[in-house]
Amino acid sequence: MSADSPFPGASLARVWRPSSRSSGDAGSGESALAELVPNETLDGSASDSSRLPWPLAALTEGGWSYIRREGQVLEELYHLREDPREQHNIAASASSRSRLERMREVLSRLTLGPLTPDRFNP
Q1: What totals of helices (H) and strands (E) does the chain contain, helices first?
Q2: Tens of pLDDT along the chain (122 residues)?
Q3: Which residues lie closer than 8 Å to 96 by C-beta, 6 or more apart?
Q4: Given this model, what pLDDT does residue 112 score?
Q5: pLDDT at 114
Q6: Architecture of the domain defined by 28-41+53-119
C-alpha cells in the first residue's frame, strides 16, 4: 500500500497487470480475500431484525475458493480447476481436510480473527 493511498490493505493491481504466468493460472498460491459481507442474511427471511446476522467471507488461494459464515459455521470449499463454477462443495470431504484447515487459517489471518456480528455494528 502506498502511503498516499486512501484505501487500506494490499493493492490488487497485480491481478490485472500482465505477468510471466498465464492470465488463467489459478495456481499462483497467493491468498486474496475475495469478499466480505458484514450484514447480509443468507435467505432474506430473517424475522427478527434486532438480531445481527453473522458476516460472510470468501477467500481464494492457489486454485481454491473458500466461503465461511462464522455463526452457523457454514463452510464451502471448491477446487476451481476441477469445478470452475463452484457447483460441488467439497468442504465435508475427508480428502480436502488439510486444504480446508489451511483456508480457515488464512481467512482468520486476513480478517484479523473471527467474523462476529458486533465487529461491523457499533
Answers
A1: 2, 4
A2: 556 777 777 776 665 655 444 333 444 457 777 767 666 554 555 455 456 667 788 889 889 999 988 776 789 999 999 999 999 999 999 999 999 999 989 888 888 777 776 766 65
A3: 77, 79, 90
A4: 76
A5: 72
A6: 2-Layer Sandwich (3.30)
Residue 9 to residues 5, 42, 72, 104, Cα–Cα distance (Å): 10, 27, 28, 20
d(CA 38, CA 100): 22
Distance (Å, rounded) from C-alpha 54 to C-alpha 51? Answer: 9
Which three-class secondary structure state does DSSP give residue 99? helix
Which pLDDT does position 31 carry in this prediction?
Answer: 79
The grid coordinates listed for 8 are 487500506
Gap between the Cα atoms of 7 and 69, Å rounded: 25
Cβ–Cβ < 8 Å for 63, 78: no
Q: What angle do CA 34, 40, 41 make, to 5 degrees?
A: 120
Task: State CA 24 to chain mean position distance.
Answer: 19
